[in-house]
Automatic annotation (TrEMBL), chain A:
The lineage of its organism: Bacteria, Pseudomonadati, Bacteroidota, Chitinophagia, Chitinophagales. Keywords: 4Fe-4S, Iron, Iron-sulfur, Membrane, Metal-binding, Oxidoreductase, Transmembrane, Transmembrane helix. The keyword DNA damage does not apply. It comes from Chitinophaga horti. This is (Fe-S)-binding protein. The chain crosses the membrane at residues 6-21, 65-89, 109-131, 152-173, 209-231.
From TrEMBL, chain B:
The keyword Cytoplasm does not apply. Residues 19-104, 145-232 form the Cysteine-rich domain. This is (Fe-S)-binding protein. Keywords: 4Fe-4S, Iron, Iron-sulfur, Metal-binding, Oxidoreductase.
């Protein structure tokens, strides 16, 4: 019997890890569809960002109450992984509470601490569910989330509550079994939360208690494994990608736009033609700006996969707030959707074609959205996981203007004024110092 | 007031302490010209040896770059850097946060490295050094002032305190808008929006900001950017409060209160 359980566990565990690894590999490839960019300098500053932003969740604390709740859920999730480790080892080895005899009193303390965290996770998730579904916070009600994204959030929160309840019930049944002196269930001492619940099970037979304990154990671990495989399809992937994203956060001031050396070179040759003679002749015609996900950087695509769809960016965006079509959250969600679509196309296309005739621009993101951005950096400031929607918008604007010559008439006038009069307005450059006299 | 150009200084064999980069708005926009004159008069009164480029100045290229026209930006940058380096400019002050941001963050990579200051930071320094002396409380007794953070000074470059420090010297009550500092709401002009019609929405960004500024009950909205100036002035007008709520640049506030 025990052997059968071990084999079943091993199969479930191996399958879960296999499918997760396969999907993770696809996501990695999808992210690497983006252009290469070097982002590994200044390691001490990056380490600082990783610790403050990802581990410390510094930016979440711009909204302290929510930050505390989120921290409960986060800490519960991270720390309970130690408990999961024991469950996995028990599953493979056919043991029960493997660590208990090794740690003795410390074990009771640790499990009690996990149980308290489990309660805080339940409280946190319950309040988050209420915020989404009863209080109806504006940024969760927005059209951005219509359909799957909204239910995705609810599934995650509900699953987390169920997993924690299973964990607590399992421990409560275990304590009741210990009280009955059931074989296999050695004493661990009373746990903080399940100790309060175990009296409910007092009158039950050993057989029923074992059944409850086993069912909870199996549902809990299968739930965790299923959840692991749900992650890559969900916004919940942020629990993993927030960490690399914090590490690769740009360290430059927010106002700095990325330079385009290829264009800088062109301008240099135009201004100093004598230098052009030394220019490498092999240079392929570069693409200017971004039309599709391959033209963005891998960091832009990592951003898209790290997005939690919390909507703080859009709630702070002046365009979104004044009813424009632009929503930075949607920019990120659409970028992710497009990466998924193109990634799947390339995988399934045996002839090796890397284009399906669609593009991020227009099939996903419209010109109107791109035009509405004031480059104010509010979205960048707000994002708790260091996503930069502005960078994507600006790269796509470059494509529109330089590859398609697509700009509003007023902008074209501004361009020609700058070019001819050295100012965005049509004044004579000779009047530039007229303010002294007037 | 005497304003000399870099060329004047060079001809007389002298070197100014600092280049005052006036910017396109500061040069041509009638409202912004007043800011330029106010700031130049402060520099003049405090004895700062400053120069302008005059006719040799050209747009930094910021709006072109943000609109997506990198070619044009690079061309403007190339020309400006040639001029600045030609005069051996070390230190620049500007009344425009967009020019400030471009010089500080974007020109170094293209060969133009300077010590760059926004005028509010320089004003704070001049006040700290005791060079700017104000008439009794600056004539703002019993008045309320609210400060609008421009995105390109605030979020883009993390300068939130210097302008507020300047305002503290006035004998006035300082009130904050609901969205201030890193939560500040854009005026609606950045990213080259100044130069085109806004996209369709439920309202305009500057109307939203104007409403918020007026709601503080302030008599003065202090700005630090010529584009914010235009947008906020329109926003206050939309509220029908242009007679009792003034939008003024921090340089204008200081200039009007100096001994």
């Amino acid at each position: 019997m025990l052997i059968a359980q071990q084999i079943m566990f091993l199969i479930a565990f191996a399958a879960a890890v296999y499918f997760f690894a396969k999907k993770a590999g696809f996501i990695r490839k999808n992210i690497l569809l983006g252009r290469d960019v070097e982002l590994n300098d200044r390691k001490d500053e990056r380490l600082r960002n990783l610790i403050l932003l990802a581990f410390g969740q510094k930016k979440m604390f711009r909204n302290p109450l929510v930050a505390v709740l989120h921290f409960f859920v986060y800490a519960g999730f991270i720390i309970i992984n130690i408990e999961i480790l024991e469950i996995i080892l028990d599953g493979i080895l056919g043991t029960h509470r493997l660590f208990a005899p090794l740690l003795v009193g410390l074990y009771t303390f640790l499990i009690s601490a996990f149980e308290i965290l489990a309660v805080t996770v339940i409280v946190g998730c319950a309040i988050f569910l209420a915020r989404r579904n009863m209080i109806k916070l504006k940024r969760f009600m927005s059209r951005d989330l219509d359909g799957w994204p909204r239910s995705d959030a609810n599934y995650i929160l509900a699953t987390e509550i169920i997993l924690m309840l299973l964990f607590l019930t399992m421990n409560a049944a275990d304590l009741a079994l210990q009280a009955q002196g059931a074989e296999h269930y050695h004493t661990t001492g009373r746990f903080a939360v399940s100790g309060l619940l175990s009296p409910m099970f007092e009158g039950m037979s050993t057989g029923s208690l074992v059944a409850i304990e086993r069912v909870c154990w199996w549902l809990h671990i299968l739930g965790v494994l299923a959840f692991l495989n749900y992650l890559p399809y969900s916004k919940h992937l942020h629990i993993m990608l927030a960490f690399p994203n914090a590490w690769y956060t740009p360290l430059e001031p927010k106002g700095k736009m990325t330079n385009m050396p290829e264009i800088q070179r062109e301008v240099l040759y135009a201004m100093q033609p004598e230098l052009a003679a030394n220019a490498p002749a092999d240079a392929a015609v570069p693409k200017f700006g971004a039309k599709d996900v391959q033209d963005l950087t891998w960091k832009n695509l990592l951003d898209a996969y790290a997005c939690t769809e919390c909507g703080r960016c859009s709630a702070a965006c002046p365009a979104t707030q004044t009813g424009k079509k632009l929503s930075p959250r949607l920019i990120m969600m659409k970028t992710r959707d497009r990466s998924e679509e193109l990634g799947a196309f390339i995988r399934n296309n045996k002839e090796g074609s890397t284009t399906d005739g669609k593009s991020l621009l227009r099939d996903y993101i419209t010109e109107e959205e791109l035009r509405a951005c004031t480059s104010c950096n509010a979205c960048v400031q707000e994002c708790p996981v260091s996503i930069n929607p502005l960078d994507i918008i600006l790269q796509m604007r470059r494509h529109l203007v330089m590859e398609e010559s697509s700009a509003p008439q007023e902008w074209n006038m501004m361009f020609s004024n700058i070019e001819n009069n050295m100012a965005p307005w049509k004044f004579s450059p000779d009047d530039r110092d007229a303010w002294i006299q007037s | 007031m005497q304003v000399r150009t870099m060329a004047d200084y060079m001809a007389s064999g002298e070197t100014p302490e600092i280049l005052f980069w006036v910017g396109c708005a500061g040069s041509f926009d009638q409202r912004a010209q007043k800011i330029t004159r106010a700031f130049a008069s402060i520099l003049d009164k405090t004895g700062v040896k400053f120069a302008i480029l005059g006719k040799e100045e050209g747009c930094t290229g910021d709006p072109a770059r943000r609109a997506g026209n990198e070619f044009l930006f690079q061309m403007m940058a190339y020309n400006n850097i040639q001029v600045l380096n030609g005069y051996g400019v070390k230190k620049i002050v500007t009344t425009c946060p967009h020019c400030f941001n471009t010089f500080k963050n974007e020109y170094p990579e293209l060969g133009g490295s300077y010590e760059v200051m926004h005028h509010t930071t320089l004003l704070q320094q001049l006040i700290d050094e005791g060079k700017v002396r104000l008439k009794d409380g600056g004539g703002f007794k019993g008045k309320k002032i609210t400060y609008h953070d421009s995105c390109y000074l605030g979020r883009a470059n993390n300068i939130y305190e210097a302008p507020r420090k300047v305002l503290e010297v006035f004998d006035a009550e300082l009130v904050e808008m609901k969205r201030c500092r890193s939560n500040g709401l854009c005026c609606g002009a950045g990213g080259a929006q100044m130069f085109k019609e806004e996209e369709k929405g439920t309202t305009r960004v500057n109307f939203e900001r104007g409403r918020e500024a007026v709601a503080t009950g302030a008599n003065v909205i202090a700005a630090n950017c010529p584009f914010c100036m235009t947008m906020l002035t329109d926003g206050v007008k939309e509220q029908g409060r242009e007679d009792d709520v003034k939008v003024l640049d921090i340089a204008e506030l200081v200039a009007a209160s100096m001994e």
